[in-house]
Amino acid sequence: MKDQKILNALSYFSLFFAPILVPLAIWIFSATENTKHHAKVALLTHIIPAIGGFASLFLVSFVGISTNSSNVTGIVGLGLMVAIGIMIVILAVFNIVRGIQALVAKEDNPLFNTID
């Protein structure tokens, strides 16, 4: 059980050293459904900022090409950067909290172990 708790926490804490690779590897190679569930959640919270970053890059480029105005492009770009930054901070705090919860969780805690 201790190894499972460490893998659960590692999938969340990997945000700081290998965001997509570690949860993906844990999800693929894990033997328990609980660990796979935590790896999927961590993988999702690591992928969302990357998708948001690419989407904001596309939108800023599209607005810059369609309006031909640097003022509008700058305002849209700044707004998207602030939104993506807030999302990244929220997801980083979420990953830290879930990683700590995974380390200190008791095996019989039904609130944290969502998969039976």
Description:
With 116 residues, this protein is an all-alpha fold. The protein has one domain. The chain is built from four helices and no strands. It has helices at residues 2-13, 21-29, 33-67, 70-104. Helix 1 runs antiparallel to helix 4, helix 2 runs antiparallel to helix 3 (33-67) and helix 3 (33-67) packs antiparallel against helix 4. The radius of gyration is 18 Å and the shape is elongated. The relative contact order is 0.16.
What would the keywords be for this entry?
about 120 residues; 4 helices; about 80% helix; elongated; MamF_MmsF; transmembrane helix
Shape, principal axes of CA atoms:
elongated
**How many DSSP E strands?**
0
Radius of gyration: 18 Å
Strand content: under 5%
In short, what is this structure?
It contains 4 helices and no strands. The protein is mainly alpha-helical. It has one domain.
Give the SSE layout.
Layout: H1 2-13, H2 21-29, H3 33-67, H4 70-104
